[in-house]
Amino acid sequence: MKKITLMICLLLTAAGVNAQQEKGIIGYNNWLDNWTEFKPHKSESKDANQILAGNITENTKLMKRNVYILQGNVYVTNNAVLTIEPGTTIIGDVSTKGALIITKGAKIMAEGQETDPIVFTSNSSMKKAGDWGGLVILGDAPINKFGSVGSYNMDLDPALTVYGGNNTASNSGVLKFVRIEFAGKRVKGADTFNALTIAGVGNKTVIENIMVSYSGGDSFAFYGGDVNASQLVSYKSINDDFKFTQGIQCRLYNSLAVRSSYLSSNKDGSRCLEVKAYEKKSETDFTKKSTFVSATNITMLNDSEKIKADIQAGLVKEAVYVAENASLELKRSVVSGFNPAVLIDSKTEINAENLKKIKFEEMFFNQCSGNIFAENKSDNSDLENWYGNSVFFNVYSQTDNKETFVDVYNAKRPDFRLQLGKITASSGK
Known about the structure:
Elements: H1 2-17, E1 50-56, E2 60-62, E3 67-76, E4 81-84, E5 89-92, E6 99-102, E7 107-111, E8 118-122, E9 135-138, E10 150-151, E11 162-163, E12 173-181, E13 196-199, E14 206-213, E15 220-223, E16 226-235, E17 242-245, E18 249-259, E19 273-275, E20 292-302, H2 307-312, E21 320-322, E22 327-331, E23 334-336, E24 342-344, H3 352-357, E25 358-361, E26 364-366, E27 372-374, H4 381-387, E28 395-397, H5 401-404, E29 405-407, E30 415-418
Parallel strand pairs: 1-3, 2-4, 3-5, 3-6, 4-7, 5-8, 6-9, 7-12, 8-12, 9-13, 12-14, 13-15, 14-16, 15-17, 16-18, 17-19, 18-20, 19-21, 20-22, 20-23, 21-24, 22-25, 23-26, 24-27, 26-28
Antiparallel strand pairs: 10-11, 29-30
Signal peptide: 1-19
Organism: Flavobacterium johnsoniae (strain ATCC 17061 / DSM 2064 / JCM 8514 / BCRC 14874 / CCUG 350202 / NBRC 14942 / NCIMB 11054 / UW101)
Keywords: Signal
């Protein structure tokens, strides 16, 4: 108990300075304007005039004037650089379940513009989640598997899908102002592709302003590496919005996850944030760094207009899941409309040591059926009291989405920033 009391005192000074800062996604203007698309089903389809297939072994540039189709698994190899002009459209072929894999040592330079984003989408006339594979970027930054090496085993060439190494500052290129739509194909005998897989990628890689819509797998999946990422958007994914595992060291900032009660996997794995130390314990080298995620100014919401009824009907699960041995620091963020807000793995002992690794500070918990729970535990009053302590500046409310956010149901240009002036919230639960 003395350790917990001491920890509260230490946090009091650090938390007090920022207690009044904005929560959730921030910006003087709505940074979602211009480059995002919340109705991708209705976007005009383009006909491809260029084919991408097989291996790209030399520096290649994709031009805005063309429309490219990914046929089957396309690998950028041999340390080649794939450059994509702003405004370029790349279509994943539905019949061959096209995917783009940037192998270790190669780079992708996909730097779109706010008014001219790069778009990866489906060529189906009736677009849906899982139409095509996705985008995979493999680097040589550290992971916590034995031998510091992993492989993205999704019916891909095992010789070309190796990732991991010792180069924390490695550079796999740039992804900026990019949209990825209807990816996440199901692989027979395996699992589902993720829309964007970042595996063993280093912190010189630029990952900013990326929107994933209607992914059949996870929207963003981080396997090891050392990553800075900001202004990422996951919209109505079937699996996780953001998955972290294999010792990833990630700083995620000013990002958004919007879930639907009616689009989710039947198995575990339909969360906004899933933070795990490993995929398989038997393959994990515990002498290496475990997963650490620092997430600040994140907005996570279920966009249902009848969230309480959906929770009662069992359509809604937790927003955040933290597994054993993983660390999460979630600050100045919004969690709205989940059941509960946070679930901590049943294998994690609730003690002072572990509570130092799982932090929730200056949070806004809204319309959640329970806030921070331990898995399979009926009485969570200890956790609720701990994180409800005033030194953490966590706030609780039961305000509907229309009053909570600036313009959440605007079909073309929604604004998910918190509408602080209209919220009647208190520090009590």
